[in-house]
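Please decode residue identities from the backbone states below.
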């Protein structure tokens, strides 16, 4: 089973090498690593290209995180696609554990438990098999999840509308997949290190007006989950 690791990158030159190297150093070797440079102007593209031919690099104009991930989807050939942001780090056994869980369950989405470091230090251990109803309490998955490529193609990938609004692109995708009857399983071990900083998209999406606008778009696209909104 081939697993593609997709790394969208925009302006993360100081962190990108650690992210790429964590993907290259996986114990599971049937992988491909694809870096999507989303129009960086800080030398990130040159850094990514210095790892060729061990990885594939695609350069695009700046269109946002969802669009960069979608570009990765279209360039990937793995059965599962594992998403990793350019400032985060995979534990070396992450892909091996994903492959084991995929063979065991044939799930459509495999969520990784994470350790936050930097500004916030916290372990996030995911609940075993989150269902649609569980998302009433909040997002039950980290963005760093492995998803069947065929399921992503069925949905059309991440919503570009969420790029325009600036966040919640992963939550939008989880609702899309769950409403299509897709199965989520999770892995309780810490398999990804999530870097928290003073300024980030995550912090911005917690601002009330921003959060309200993001939820309004999700409800517009999926009116059947109206009672899930946390504004």
């Amino acid at each position: 089973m081939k697993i593609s690791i997709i790394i969208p990158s925009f302006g993360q030159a100081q962190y990108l090498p650690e992210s790429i190297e964590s993907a290259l150093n996986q114990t599971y070797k049937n992988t491909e690593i694809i870096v999507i440079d989303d129009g960086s102007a800080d030398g990130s593209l040159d850094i990514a290209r210095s790892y060729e031919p061990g990885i594939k690099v695609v350069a695009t104009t700046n269109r946002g995180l969802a669009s960069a991930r979608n570009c990765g989807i279209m360039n990937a050939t793995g059965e599962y696609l594992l998403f990793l942001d350019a400032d985060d780090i995979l534990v070396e056994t992450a892909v091996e554990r994903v492959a084991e869980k995929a063979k065991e369950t044939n799930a459509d989405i495999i969520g990784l438990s994470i350790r936050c470091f930097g500004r916030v230090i916290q372990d996030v251990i995911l609940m075993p098999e989150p269902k649609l109803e569980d998302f009433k309490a909040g997002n039950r998955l980290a963005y760093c999840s492995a998803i069947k490529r065929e399921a992503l193609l069925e949905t059309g990938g991440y919503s570009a509308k969420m790029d325009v609004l600036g966040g919640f692109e992963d939550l939008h995708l989880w609702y899309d997949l769950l409403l299509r009857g897709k199965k989520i399983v999770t892995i309780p071990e810490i398999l990804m290190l999530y870097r928290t900083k003073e300024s980030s998209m995550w912090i911005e999406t917690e601002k009330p007006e921003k959060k309200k606008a993001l939820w309004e778009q999700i409800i517009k696209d999926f009116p059947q989950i109206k009672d899930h909104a946390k504004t």
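Observation: The two ends are 40 Å apart (CA to CA).
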